[in-house]
Amino acid sequence: MSDSRLLFREFLRAPTSVATLTASSDALVAAMLAPPALEGDDPVVVELGAGTGRVTDALARALGGRGRHVAVELNPALAARLAARHPGVTVVPGDAGDLPALLRGLGIDRVDAVSSLLPWAAWAAAPVARLAGSVLAPGGTFTQVSLLPTAWLPPARRQLAALRAEFGAVTVGGPVWANLPPARVLVARR
According to CATH, what is the number of the domain 3-189? Predict the structure, then answer.
């Protein structure tokens, strides 16, 4: 089954936990990867809501075998597909709300970057900004995709407020029109 069909099927099964019914575009993936600093020999990167792996693919290329790459995906079908496709990535079928415990279980206490495609339901269920902030190393970067057509809705405003409360300054990226639906990337630094 193609990634698109799998994503669409899983969205229909659980629309509140699968954030979108289309995979992220190349333009959105590039916008997500622009801020994190992945220099050095041993960067540690975590993805939250890795889905079908569009960001995973790009991060794996950017890391080029260096460091550690952990992808957390709640949906078992998407996590299984991701693990089969990326044997070099530690795929954790779990809830991002358990992030510190999941990382401790892997022997990781600090990460350099967290990239999130989590839906609002995840943000409503757990303090995502606080959890990400608790695992980021000094100088670490947190990126979150936010859908442009819904940016004015209360859940989107709460998400941005939570990031500002945890990190202080948050950069709101420009619109990524070449994505369906159009999106923007929120960037917070520790």
Answer: 3.40.50.150
Cβ-based burial of 123 (10 A; exposed 0-12, middle 13-18, buried ≥19): buried
Structure letter (DSSP) for residue 119:
-
Q: Does the global pTM surpass 0.85?
A: yes
Task: Give, as one character, the DSSP assignment of residue 107.
Answer: T
- Please write the tens of the pLDDT for every residue from 72-113: 999 899 899 999 999 999 999 999 999 999 999 999 999 999
The SS3 call for residue 73 is strand
- Name the residue ranges covered by the structural domains of the chain: 3-189
Q: d(Cα 12, Cα 135) in Å, to the nearest integer?
A: 32
Write down the mean pLDDT value for the chain.
88
Cβ(98)–Cβ(121) below 8 Å: no
Strand order in the sheet with 111-116: 90-93, 68-73, 44-48, 111-116, 136-147, 183-189, 170-172
Q: Which amino acid is at 146?
A: S
Predicted confidence (pLDDT) per residue in 10-69, tens digit? 555 555 554 555 667 889 999 998 777 677 789 999 999 998 898 999 999 999 999 999
Residue 78 CA to chain centroid, in angstroms?
Answer: 14
